[in-house]
Design brief:
InterPro entries: 3'-5'_exonuclease_dom (IPR002562), Exo_C (IPR041605), HRDC-like_sf (IPR010997), HRDC_dom (IPR002121), HRDC_dom_sf (IPR044876), RNase_D-like (IPR051086), RNaseH-like_sf (IPR012337), RNaseH_sf (IPR036397). With 390 residues, this protein is an alpha/beta fold. It is built from 18 helices and eight strands. It has three domains: 191 residues, Nucleotidyltransferase, domain 5; 90 residues, DNA polymerase, domain 1; 72 residues, HRDC domain (DNA polymerase, domain 1, Orthogonal Bundle), CATH 1.10.150.80. Helices cover 52% and strands 9% of the residues. A six-stranded mixed sheet has the order 2-5-4-3-6-7. Strands 1-8 form a two-stranded parallel sheet.
């Protein structure tokens, strides 16, 4: 019979008060500057509740400084932390999730350590913070508040307890993972990845409305135009009320509205009674705008590609991509590493479509790190040699 690891229920030194005034923020900066070594950092958002992905609470912990909880919504600009933290390493679990909202508040790291990515580089199948804490420290973390509405004020004490615990475990987790990376011969891989993350920016879609779930159900350009107008109107409404767009209309409802052939705002209100009369009228005007577009103004059925024109047909690209992905998968299996960490699938597809055979140069030009190039280029070159030329 296995014994379940102990559950962490409270921070070792209690939950500090939330910093929400300029004077308290100045004192927090001084405390953090007086500390030393890496800084554990986490951020809490209100995804699916508020508009955008901004941080409502930012947690930091540093040796000699203790834990600091910042009401980032009240404070706004957190750029003053940069000088206090200096050039020391920020330890974050999933940099791609948290760094953008920290940058939006003015925070810019000089060095990073991503505990989630480190676990993935080690080939761990479970890499959420709770799973990594259990494997490295032998403790359990309660995660019931991860999807809470962190825009709530005042924040409940039990939520703050949860937030403080998340950064309390990050620094010891980092130390264990660093040792394991060295022992696995992957410390240099990790260093290259962490340096690359310093310039991470979320992908910006030229036509974000095409990410609407269920768009594939629509076959006419006229209906696509309706979705485009409805999506933008919904986004404007969400931004004005600081509400997640899905709270205005879910994607499937947006698709249904585009296909509904509504004749008036009353038709919309009858089908979605939770909308106000003003919002129903606004959405109907979006439908009318789409209906007045000329054929030349209608969106194409597919998003225009920003990639160079390929010498291969769509079917050939699929076949070539499958062959190259299979070669990467073989290397990933041998390395006991996830294939998407070894090399991003989108990069593999780009190589397949390009028709180029200078694999090392291509991968480097497109952002692959030296360790990735070294492990995958030979296998990809061999796979390309077996494929027809463009």
């Amino acid at each position: 019979m296995t014994t379940e690891p102990p559950l962490l229920t409270a921070p070792a030194h209690g939950v500090p008060p939330v910093v929400d005034s300029p004077s308290a923020f100045a004192a927090a900066r001084e405390a953090l500057a007086a500390g030393s070594g890496p800084i554990a950092i986490d951020a809490e958002r209100a995804s699916g509740i508020r508009y955008g992905q901004r941080a409502f609470l930012v947690q930091l912990r540093r040796e000699g400084s203790g834990t600091v909880l910042l009401d980032s919504e009240a404070l706004g600009d957190l750029s003053g932390l940069n000088a206090a933290l200096g050039d020391d390493e920020w330890v974050i679990h999933s940099v791609t999730q948290d760094l953008p909202c920290l940058q939006d508040r003015g925070m810019v790291p000089a060095a990073l350590f991503d505990t989630e990515l480190a676990a993935r580089l080690l080939g761990w199948e479970k890499f959420g913070l709770a799973a990594v804490a259990e494997r490295t420290l032998g403790v359990r973390l309660a995660k019931e508040h991860s999807a809470a509405d962190w825009s709530t004020r005042p924040l409940p004490e039990e939520w703050l307890n949860y937030a403080a615990l998340d950064v309390e475990v990050l620094l010891p987790i980092r130390d264990v993972l660093a040792v394991e990376l060295v022992e696995a011969g992957r410390w240099e891989y990790a260093q290259q990845e962490f340096a690359h993350l310093l310039s991470f920016q979320p992908k910006v879609h030229a036509e974000p409305w095409r990410r609407t779930h269920g768009l594939a159900k629509l076959t006419s350009r006229a209906d696509l135009a309706k979705v485009r107008e409805l999506w933008q109107t919904r986004d404007d409404m969400a931004a004005e009320t600081d509400t997640a767009p899905s709270k205005v209309l879910r994607d499937r409802e947006l698709i249904d509205l585009a296909r509904s052939r509504a004749r008036s705002s009353d038709d919309i209100l009858a089908r979605w009674p939770r909308l106000s009369r003003a919002d129903s009228a606004r959405l109907f005007r979006a439908l009318r705008r789409a209906g007045r577009l000329t054929p030349d103004e209608l969106p194409p059925k597919r998003e225009p590609s920003r990639l160079p024109r390929s010498p291969f047909s769509h079917t050939e690209i699929k076949e070539r991509t499958a062959a190259l992905k299979a070669s990467v998968a073989e290397v990933a299996e041998a390395e006991e590493m996830p294939h998407d960490v070894l090399l991003q699938p989108a990069l593999v597809k780009s190589l397949a479509a390009s028709g180029r055979t200078d694999v090392e140069v291509f991968l480097t030009e497109h952002g692959a790190r030296p360790w990735q190039v070294g492990l995958t280029a030979p296998a990809l070159s061999a796979a390309l040699d077996q494929l027809p030329r463009g």
